[in-house]
Amino acid sequence: MASEPTRNLALELVRVTEAAALAAGRFMGRGDKIAADRAAVDAMRVVLNSIAMNAIIIIGEGEKDQAPMLYNGERVGTGEGPAMDIAVDPIDGTRPLSNGTSNAIATVALAPRGTMFDPGPFLYMNKIAVGPQARGTVDIEAPVEHNLRAIAQASDKKVEDLTVVILDRPRHTELIAEVRRCGARIRLIQDGDVAGALMTSWPDSGIDVLMGIGGTPEGVLAACALRAMGGEIQGKLYARNDDELRRGVEMGYDFKKTLTMNDLVASDDVFFAATGITDGEFLRGVKYYGSGARTDSVVVRGMTGTVRQIIATHRWDKLSRFSAIRYQGNT
C-alpha cells in the first residue's frame, strides 16, 4: 500500500548550502583556507539550527579539520521533528576555493537516525563510483581493466571513450598508469571528490567513473546523493599505516569489507543538497554583483528519486533585515 512521503527536508537543506557558498565564495583565490572554512561553517550552522529536525552530526568538520563547530556528535536543528543523521562538508574543495580553481562546492546530507555509516576517525577509503548506466556492473575488488570494460559495455562505448576522474595524489601513480595502459581518458582533480563522484551521474559532465583513494566522509555524502540519482558507489576503508589499521580493528572496523551503497546509507529516505562555490562541470560558482548574488544548486530526494536544479538570486537588502549571517563585509 502506498504511503504518504515524508516531509521534503532537501528543500530546506538547500538554504544551508546556499548560505555556506555565499559566505565562503568571498574568499575565492585569496589563499586563506582557514578563513574560508570558518565563514562556511558559521553560515551553515546558523541555518541548520533553524530547521525543524532533531539531527546528530555523524560526519562533520571536527575530526578532519579541528573546526570549532559542526563537530561529530553535535546536535543541530530545532530539536523538534524527525530524528536524523547528518553529514556536512561546508567546503568540498577548500584548496580549489583558496586557489581560485574549479569544483569547490558546499554539501550536506540527511538520513534517518542510525542509517548513515559512521567512519569514526578513519578518514580515507578506496572508492569507485559510476552513473546509472553502469550501476551493478563494477566491483571495487576487480582489476581496473575489468571495471573499465564493464563500464564501457554498459554505456555502449569503447574503453577509449571513457573518462576517469582521479584525485591527483602520489598514492595514485599505479592507478593512473593502469588506466592509461587500458586506453581510457583521465581527468585529474586536486580536491573535491564529492563533486567527482556526482559528476558520474550528472548529464553532460563527460565523467564516466571515479576511482581511487579519497575521503571517507566524502564517500558517505556521495552515497546519499547517488542513491537518488541512480548511480552507485563502493568503498573500502583505507589505513594510512599499521597503527591506524590496528586501531581500526580494535574498534571493530573491517578494512577488508566492501562497503556498498546500503552500508554507507541504509535508507532510501535520504536528502542531499549542494551549492557551487567556484565554477565547475557539476555546478556553477557564486556570482556576486552590487546588490546581491546568484547561486547554482542541486537538491536530491532519495524517496522519490527527484533531482532538482535551483538557480537562486539573493538580495542583500532583504537578507540583511533578518539574517544573522554577514554576507557582505566578510573581509
Polypeptide structure, described:
- It contains eleven helices and 13 strands.
- The protein is an alpha+beta fold and 331 residues long.
- Helix 1 packs antiparallel against helix 2 and helix 7 (193-199) packs parallel to helix 8.
- The chain is 31% helix and 26% strand.
- Strands 1, 2, 3, 4, 10, 11, 12 and 13 form an eight-stranded mixed β-sheet that branches. The protein has a five-stranded mixed β-sheet with strand order 7-6-8-5-9, with helices on both faces.
- Strand 12 (292-301) and strand 13 form a beta hairpin.
- It starts with 9 loop residues before the first helix and ends in a 9-residue tail after the last helix.
- The chain has helices at 10-24, 33-48, 62-65, 94-99, 144-154, 173-182, 193-199, 216-229, 242-250, 261-264, 316-322, and strands spanning 54-59, 75-76, 83-92, 105-112, 124-130, 163-167, 185-189, 209-215, 232-237, 271-276, 287-289, 292-301, 306-315.
Short description:
With 331 residues, this protein is of the alpha+beta class. 31% of the residues lie in helices and 26% in strands.
How many E-type strands?
13
**How much is the average pLDDT?**
91
Weakly predicted, low-confidence segments: 1-5, 63-67
Q: Count of helical segments?
A: 11
> How widely separated are the two ends?
55 Å
Task: Please state the CA-atom Rg, rounded to the nearest Å.
Answer: 19 Å
Percentage of residues in strands = 25-35%
List the helices and strands and how they pair.
Layout: H1 10-24, H2 33-48, E1 54-59, H3 62-65, E2 75-76, E3 83-92, H4 94-99, E4 105-112, E5 124-130, H5 144-154, E6 163-167, H6 173-182, E7 185-189, H7 193-199, E8 209-215, H8 216-229, E9 232-237, H9 242-250, H10 261-264, E10 271-276, E11 287-289, E12 292-301, E13 306-315, H11 316-322
Parallel strand pairs: 1-3, 6-7, 6-8
Antiparallel strand pairs: 1-2, 3-4, 4-10, 5-8, 5-9, 10-12, 11-12, 12-13
Helix pairs in contact: 1-2, 7-8
